[in-house]
């Protein structure tokens, strides 16, 4: 999937992946897509809740080994 920005949050523990995701989303325009790479397993549920509360759309996620990859559309 094509993204407008990629955020590498691998190796970071809660709450840093969500903090960095929020900062990266603030730099995007409405409708742009952020791709996030993370290794914190709890980030999956955190991101789903955060996206919903912020009006963003979690488009897709995949797991490649230990790395979780997410694509979020800014709402």
Automatic annotation (TrEMBL):
InterPro entries: TusA-like, TusA-like_sf. It comes from Bacillus mojavensis. CDD domains: SirA_YedF_YeeD. Belongs to the sulfur carrier protein TusA family. It comes from the Bacteria. Residues 7-31 form the UPF0033 domain. Pfam families: TusA (PF01206). This is Rhodanese-like domain protein YrkI.
């Amino acid at each position: 999937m094509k993204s407008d920005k990629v955020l590498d949050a691998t190796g970071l523990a809660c709450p840093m992946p969500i903090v960095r995701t929020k900062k990266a989303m603030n730099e995007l325009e409405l409708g742009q897509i952020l791709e996030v790479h993370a290794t914190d397993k709890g980030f999956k549920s955190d991101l789903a809740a955060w996206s919903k509360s912020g009006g963003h759309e979690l488009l897709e996620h995949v797991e490649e080994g230990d790395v979780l990859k997410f694509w979020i559309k800014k709402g």
